[in-house]
């Protein structure tokens, strides 16, 4: 029995589109920040008395038809380790209740770490990130803390994550504004596929995102929040432009998302460096300095209550709890 903890991550340079659907090889490299506030604890026990894998999420048994990706990751671990038994998997998501934030990144990273160790494998971070990738692309990056790059690669061996700056000794954080608690209507998988197939701008996304990645690594090494924020915001909006330009068009924005963007623009006009990013849902993450958070919260307060605002700082990579 092994228990592992992994934190979620938010991409600053987004992964949007798959080259290989089965192996989850992305169309572009991406880069993220791992966050301390949101994480998943997962315990894996291989047991000869089990006749199938069974998966409990927050103490509730998940129906078999919704566990195919978990079983897929466990099958990969069994094939690598020679473990023959089925597994009991118990996960607890420490993401504020119904926050509407994706937990697949922390979930599959914790699963990869706990399952490999329970099966007797002792893998390095790079190999773990390749296994996490097979559950959910973004999980690749949650193996490591701080700023993490997922190298696109072209095969299972060459598509993996690598830490860029694990210990962050400068002032950067993310303020998440929760505007929607329900599950997303269009999954990231469906949204990516539609964008790749139908957006006339997809090729421009690929070429310009490579440039964004090079520039953001420079900003990280310079510890330059303004440059990092500007690149992150424009990269996120280019990703969302792919959904708007898909056919049929779709969007992850809602009215509140736009309202928050307006607030961020006016905060910047008042001299506060803050920037927005969004993923496959309407919640907005504001990249800013922790020292500016009280001012940002007070500006947002006419429209957003304090229970909609969650502050997250840079978080660490996978750890074992036993
Ligand atoms: O790994 P998935 O299927 O949850 O997709 C993640 C997609 C984005 O969150 C929008 C971007 C990213 O790189 O995390």
TrEMBL record:
GO BP term (any one): isopentenyl diphosphate biosynthetic process, mevalonate pathway
Pfam families: MDD_C, MVD-like_N
GO CC annotations, alphabetized: cytosol
Enzyme Commission number(s) from the entry: 4.1.1.33
Residues of the Mvd1 C-terminal domain: 175-306
Ranges where the Diphosphomevalonate decarboxylase-like N-terminal domain occurs: 6-161
SUPFAM superfamilies for this protein: GHMP Kinase, C-terminal domain (SSF55060), Ribosomal protein S5 domain 2-like (SSF54211)
Enzyme class: lyase
UniProt xrefs under InterPro entries: GHMP_kinase_C_sf, Mev_decarb, Mev_diP_decarb, MVD-like_N, Mvd1_C, Ribosomal_Su5_D2-typ_SF, Ribsml_uS5_D2-typ_fold_subgr
Any one GO molecular-function label of the UniProt entry: ATP binding
Keyword entries, A-Z: ATP-binding, Lipid biosynthesis, Lipid metabolism, Lyase, Nucleotide-binding
Record-linked PANTHER family: DIPHOSPHOMEVALONATE DECARBOXYLASE
Family affiliation: Belongs to the diphosphomevalonate decarboxylase family.
Name by which UniProt lists this protein: diphosphomevalonate decarboxylase
Taxon lineage: Bacteria, Bacillati, Bacillota, Bacilli, Lactobacillales
């Amino acid at each position: 029995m092994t228990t592992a903890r992994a934190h979620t991550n938010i991409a600053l340079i987004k992964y949007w589109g798959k080259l290989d659907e089965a192996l989850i090889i992305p169309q572009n490299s991406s880069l993220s920040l791992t966050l301390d506030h949101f994480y998943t604890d997962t315990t894996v026990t291989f047991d000869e008395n089990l006749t199938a894998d069974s998966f409990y999420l927050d103490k509730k048994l998940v129906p078999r038809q919704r566990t195919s990706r978990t079983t897929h990751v466990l099958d990969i671990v069994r094939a690598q380790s020679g473990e023959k038994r089925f597994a009991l998997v118990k996960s607890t998501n420490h993401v504020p209740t119904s926050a509407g934030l994706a937990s697949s990144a922390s979930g599959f990273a914790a699963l990869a770490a706990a399952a490999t160790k329970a099966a007797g494998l002792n893998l390095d971070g790079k190999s773990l990130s390749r296994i996490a990738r097979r559950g959910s692309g973004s999980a690749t990056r949650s193996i490591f803390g701080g700023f993490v790059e997922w190298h696109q690669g072209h095969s299972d061996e060459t598509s993996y994550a690598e830490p860029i700056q694990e210990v962050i000794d400068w002032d950067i954080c993310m303020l998440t504004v929760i505007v929607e608690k329900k599950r997303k209507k269009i999954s990231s998988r469906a949204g990516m596929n539609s964008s790749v197939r139908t957006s006339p701008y997809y090729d421009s996304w690929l070429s310009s995102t490579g440039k964004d990645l090079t520039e953001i690594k420079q900003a990280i090494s310079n510890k330059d929040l303004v440059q990092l924020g500007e690149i992150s915001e424009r990269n996120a909006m280019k990703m969302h432009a792919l959904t708007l330009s898909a056919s049929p068009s779709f969007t992850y924005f809602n009215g509140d998302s736009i309202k928050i963007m307006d607030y961020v623009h006016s905060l910047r006009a008042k001299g506060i460096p803050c920037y927005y990013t969004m993923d496959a849902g309407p919640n907005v993450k504001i990249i800013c300095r922790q020292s500016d958070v009280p001012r940002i919260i007070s500006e947002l307060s006419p429209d957003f209550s304090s229970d909609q605002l969650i502050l997250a700082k840079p978080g660490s990579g996978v750890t074992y709890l036993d």
